[in-house]
Design brief:
Length: 160
Amino acid sequence: MLERITAGYLCPITATGGQCGGHIVNEIVPLLEGNERKVLYLGDCEERGPGDQIEANTRRYIEKHAGRTFTDETWIKVALTPEQVARSPRLRRLAIDKVDRRYKPPRPYRAIECEAVGQAVLERMLRTVLDRLLPEPLERVRVREQRQRAKVRAALRRMR
């Protein structure tokens, strides 16, 4: 659902679904090999839950297969971070109690899920990070592109 935003920034996007090694190796890793391209990650905020483990495993798997190591500057968690939740009473009210049944005995944890935050909020969070990463505002680039296209069209008309 965020594709229409990332497409405007020429930024590929995919869902990892937590644990999907084949997809990571075949679709994501080729985009990250031999370059310094950044990864923007969106995932649930979980206190003592599996969310951090899922993100860490995804990152390790990509690093292993892409032959690179990510830093805080090249692996950016867009949402939902503990800092975002701490700053927002609205996000804190969205917290739910869940149980991680991978452990004996099962472990309870609190989670704020991306789905509960809402599409518009996630879109704003993503746009904010993407805009911050650009060397100049996207709108300025689009205006320049429109001017260049108009010049090319005019030049082509003169050639007829």
